[in-house]
Amino acid sequence: ATMPPLLSAIATAGRHGVLIKSAVVMERLGQVDAVALDKTGTLTEGTPRVTDVCPLDHSGLTEEAMLTLAAAAEHPSEHPLARAVADAARKRGLELPAAWDFASTPGTGVTATVDGRTVAVGSPGRLREPHPDHPATALATRLEETGRTAVLVEVDGSAVGVLGIADGLREDATATVAALTTLTGTAPVLLTGDNPRAARLLAAEVGIADVRAGLLPQDKVTAVKELEGAGRKVLVVGDGVNDAPALAAAHTAVAMGRAGSDLALETADAVVVRDELATIPTAVSLSRRARRLVV
Ligand code: ADP
Ligand code: MG
């Protein structure tokens, strides 16, 4: 028998590097008329590196001491930023003490007990000491204005310093945004838990004007529902645990496979396995072609 068009499109999409989970998904992909993209790990490569280790003077901590505490607390986390912090410590040959009572909050950061102290590492806006006139805030803002993600380190509830983390734009990010804009008739929206300064810099570079930053996982859902409430069929692309609720709420959801979290991969309707963003507009085009053959 000749293969039905949707199944043969699934096979072709697979050869291009996108795993489509069902014929229904293959069909729905071609209906999307709006796109919401995550930033970290989706538009960026998802292999961030620590570029700055900045303990505050009053903390009495050396760079190494602060990095050791932060890396010990991040060690159990699978978040790309956590891996960056752990890698930075490993590169400096630092020995990490064990962490106890580890807890992570998607879109915020982690906490753990290290050497009897409570260490928190995460978003400067969401940890406990984000006073606008605190020296850590100025430091974080300065890093963010250069496109970096600033991560605050707190010990026993007070800020001790900031880490600057950089993640490169994917090579095909700009071309993919352009292709998706042509296919849907509107430019994609950027949804990120990261800071608005870094998010806007990166968005401008790839041709995105609509930037929603500082979002918690549930805020990403609200943004998607808002678009769908306005009658759009939204394609959501993400990689993190923080993206899972938005992926579940989307008309169609695609997860980035290589650095993606298990939860995102399981929740999404399709998975990019070749780790190229450009496979997504290809899959949308394949769906449209197959649907023309079906009807
Ligand atoms: P995005 O939506 O861009 O993929 P996330 O929602 O995963 O980003 O994270 C949003 C912000 O929360 C990060 O920019 C960082 O400030 C903070 N954060 C989340 N998880 C961690 C972590 N494990 N370590 C440090 N910071 C974190
Ligand atoms: Mg992400």
From TrEMBL:
Domain of life: Bacteria
Segments forming a coiled coil: none
Compartment(s) of residence: Cell membrane
Family per similarity comment: Belongs to the cation transport ATPase (P-type) (TC 3.A.3) family. Type IB subfamily.
Name of the protein described by the UniProt record: Metal-transporting ATPase
Organism: Streptomyces violaceusniger
Residues of the full protein shown: 305 to 599 of 657
